[in-house]
Each structure stands twice: as C-alpha cells, then as structure tokens.
Amino acid sequence: METRELRYYVAVAEELHFGRAAERLGIAQPPLSRAIQRLERRLGVTLLERSSRAVSLTEAGRVLLAEGRAALEAVEAADRRTRRAGAGFVLAAKAGASGEFLAKLLDAYAAEPGAVEVEVLLCGIAEQERLLRDGRADVALLHLPFDSIVGLDTEELRTETQVVVLPGGHPLSTRPSLTLAEVTALPGLPMPRWPGPGGVYPPGPGPEVHNHTQLLQLISLGRAAALLPESCRAQLGHDLVAVPVSDAPTVTTVIAWPPQSRSRAVAGLVRAATRL
Amino acid sequence: METRELRYYVAVAEELHFGRAAERLGIAQPPLSRAIQRLERRLGVTLLERSSRAVSLTEAGRVLLAEGRAALEAVEAADRRTRRAGAGFVLAAKAGASGEFLAKLLDAYAAEPGAVEVEVLLCGIAEQERLLRDGRADVALLHLPFDSIVGLDTEELRTETQVVVLPGGHPLSTRPSLTLAEVTALPGLPMPRWPGPGGVYPPGPGPEVHNHTQLLQLISLGRAAALLPESCRAQLGHDLVAVPVSDAPTVTTVIAWPPQSRSRAVAGLVRAATRL
DNA sequence: CCCGACGATACCCGCCGGGTATCGCCGGCC
DNA sequence: GGCCGGCGATACCCGGCGGGTATCGTCGGG
C-alpha cells in the first residue's frame, strides 16, 4: 500500500464524496475512482458502498480510515523529523503553562555538553499529542491527569497541588482554602470546558476555552472560575486571586516523547529535566 | 514520501550496501541508487555517506531509519487489519502463559452479544509488542513488569504472586517458602535469561530461553530454575515443584491494544476481560 | 418524465520505476 | 606500480501507471 493511495482513501472516506475529495486532493475525479478501485482490488475487500446518490463506509472501510490516518501521521513524522535532523529539535508546551519551569528546563539543558538548539512550540491545550505523533514536535511537557500519554514514553518531573482562580472581588476570594464541592458549585461562575483527547469538547455548561490567556481573561470578566496548578500564580494579574483547594487531585508535569525516537538530543533534554 | 521509497531506504540503511539491499528487495542496483538519491533530494538532506568502499549513515539517516521503520510498521498494520476486517480479530498471548485464564476470557467473550471469531496467536516472549505494532495482532495479553506497554492502551486484569519452579528432587523443593536472595543464588541452577524489549538477551550466565516449554524442560533437566507467576502451577508436570517466593514482585496481567484501533470487537473483548 | 448530480468507463499522454550496459573510483595484491 | 575487482553512479531504453478530458449509466427529485 503506497502512501498516495492512503491519502486518497482517507480523503474520500472523510468527504464521503469522490468529487469533493478529488478537489481537496487537487486531482480530477476519474483517477481518484480508479485508485480506490485498485486499492480495494489489491486488499481484497470493499471499502466503500456506492449508490448513485451517496457513499458510505463498510466495516473494512472504517478500519482503514482509522489505521490509515495513524499510518499517514507516522510517515509525515518520519518526513518532518528527518528534514530537521541535526538542526535541533522541537519542544511542545501549552502556552501559559509551566512558564518558569520551562525556562529553568531550557537553561539546564543549554548547560549540558552537546546541547543543540531547542525550538519551543507553544500550543493550545490537547494539541501536544498530535504534534508528537505527526512529527511537528519531538518532545512535550504534559500534565497528568489531563493529557493522555497513551503511545508515549514519559518521565515524571514534578507534582503540584491545585488552586482555584477567582475574580478579585469574589466573596470566596478571601478564604484561606476551599473544597472541591464548594468550587464546582460556584453560583454564576461555571467551570470552563477544555478540549479532551482528540480536541473535542465535553458537553455541559461553561464556556469552551483552548488556551490560558483566553481563560484568564474570562475569569477577569467574572464569567468563569478555574481549577489550575498552583504554579499558575506567577502569571496572575492583580485582578485575579488564587485560593488553595484542599481536596483537588494533584497535577503531575511529565516530559514525553514518541518511543521510537530515542534521539541523542531528546535523551539529553530528558536527562536535564529529571535532574531539576 | 512513498512507502516504496521508505522500504528501499530502510533496506539500504540496514545492509549498508546497495547491492545486497537491491537483492533483498528483488530489484537491480541502479534503480535503488536513483531512488535513494531522489529521496535525499526531496528531503533536502543527505542520508548516507558513500565512499567507494563503504556506506554509512548520517545523523539524518539514523533518524529516518528509526522513524521509517515505525512508519512502515504502521502502514503494514493498516494493510493487515483492513484485510481481516469483519473476519474476527487476533489475540496474541505468550505460549504457555495464562492458559486457564485465557480459556475463561475467550468463553466470557463468546457469550457477549455480537461476539466475532477470535484467532489466538501463541507467540514467544516479548514478541507481542511487535505483533500489535505491525498489525498481525489486534489485542494482546501482557505481563507487567516484564513486558513494555509503551505505545499501547491497557486495562489491568489480575495480579498474582510469583513462585520459583525447581526440579523435583531439589533440596529446597520441600520448603514452604523461599526468599529472593535464596532463589537468585541457587548453586548450579542459574536463572535463565529472557529476551528484553526488542528481542535482545541481556548478558550474563544462564541459558537463553524464548518460550515456556523450553524453559520447563530445562528445569526438568536440572539445568535451570525460574521465577514464574503462581498460575503456572497448572502446567507443571510431576517432576517439577513450585515454591512461593515471599518477597518477589507481583505480576500483573494486562490486556493491551494499539490506541487508534478502537474497533467494536476489541472493545467487546476488553469489556468481557474486565468483568472476569 | 426529464434533468441533474455523481460515480464509472474509455481513451490518451507523459513521467517514472525498472531493466541492461558501462563508467569512475579506489583499495588491495602480485 | 600497475592491474584487478568490488561498488556506487550514470546512460539509455521500455512499459506501465498516474493523471487528464470526454462521456456514459443510474438514480432521485422537481
């Protein structure tokens, strides 16, 4: 199976329409039809059910869509990582999270013998897994239990407690400590929803957020409150207050990388990180 | 990057010899040289250092070898899993391990509504990870802490203590219990060596084994002793004795599957397994 | 009942993957 | 030191496959 065939199939399976898929791929429709037919013939299974009005996936088609996407990501990762081989590597971190910690980590690594250039890729929440899988990043800082580490090698770096961030004048903002029960039931201050694995938002009340700036601004505006690791205190303006939450689960920062890419450079960064 | 190019490159990078690589690929040498040149040109990096006597990998070449192997495995997995879509799935288990447990699991799954055919692939030790990665298996029974679960989704099934298996007449075979210290220092009965992740054997004394039959026979012959999960008792002949080891680490059986293949069938098996 | 949307088919062209023959380079051996 | 042999690169040729345009066959809907 060639990657071109996979790309073609994934396009058709996503669009469920040969014409649109061909347009997306920048080719005409007939060669696309032929390519899919040949793919089906070679695999010995039917992938798509075509009526003259609609296209739908068979069971085999669903399997190939999932597996094919993963395979294409692996190929893209090989491509990107090879292109930048030797020219340093890319570290993905959530914009706004672990700011100080990240600075210390980069300093520590820079002091290592043989350190190469590190490009820091600040991304939204829940994007890191995909960045690592498709090769746009080589190593990432993740936070348990929020991020999924399935499919990655990891090393734990530090664990911290959580605080609730409230607008300055809020009645509870002067309390020395709160409980989860008090925090989740705040009248008029819903907890925002973060994207889960795959980038989909869970249903429920509360605004959808995808980065920290956005979140902090919503809190300033008095439209949300949020549970965050205590290290976020360093970034809070004077109009926000952090109150410890005694029974909130702890957050663990981990450094993660794809298991097959044991490059010298990434190993050095991991070593520097675990020594912090 | 097309998979054919990746296959070609991996062959050359492994052989470090264009002629032999071409032979292995079943093509002539000139087209192979051209393909690698074109790959290097398109990637914009040199992968191989050629002198007229030897071929060696550059840093980029090492990266592409590792990433390319992973990508090829993902493509092969997509191929195999698509071909057998709908026709059941494959469960990989170590030959000789978890015998009874496996039988119960298969029975429980067969009773599920919508159960499909399960092919059981009995393999050697440390082969399962690769079987899952390249698509020859869809789901596997692994044993912590021996097997690596990096890159897999898992669910814990049961935890058991370990026993030491000794030849029948051995002086220690009548003891009610032993300690790790006593077991590792058995005179004349070395612990065998198992392949670690990647199928390589750690250095040291003791015979190399890669399946349970072989191991049990070695013990019968009085040439080895082994630490095994207590459930192995069911398979011991009368010439072998199992003695509990009080301070040995416990073994956890887990069911594992590649994260992207959340097929209905595998989900059913996992559900049946966790209910056991 | 006809139209229009959509996938399949027919047919053509140019490039690329593969083959054979040969070159150029270099290390080793007589 | 010159010849040989091993090895990758180059030159050149062919066939098939990827891609394009034109058109057909089949439905569902107005």
Automatic annotation (TrEMBL), chains A, B:
<dbReference type="InterPro" id="IPR036388">
    <property type="entry name" value="WH-like_DNA-bd_sf"/>
</dbReference>
<keyword id="KW-0805">Transcription regulation</keyword>
<protein>
    <submittedName>
        <fullName>LysR family transcriptional regulator</fullName>
    </submittedName>
</protein>
<feature type="domain" description="HTH lysR-type">
    <location>
        <begin position="1"/>
        <end position="58"/>
    </location>
</feature>
<dbReference type="InterPro" id="IPR005119">
    <property type="entry name" value="LysR_subst-bd"/>
</dbReference>
<dbReference type="Pfam" id="PF00126">
    <property type="entry name" value="HTH_1"/>
</dbReference>
<dbReference type="InterPro" id="IPR000847">
    <property type="entry name" value="LysR_HTH_N"/>
</dbReference>
<comment type="similarity">
    <text>Belongs to the LysR transcriptional regulatory family.</text>
</comment>
<dbReference type="Pfam" id="PF03466">
    <property type="entry name" value="LysR_substrate"/>
</dbReference>
<keyword id="KW-0238">DNA-binding</keyword>
<keyword id="KW-0804">Transcription</keyword>
<dbReference type="InterPro" id="IPR036390">
    <property type="entry name" value="WH_DNA-bd_sf"/>
</dbReference>
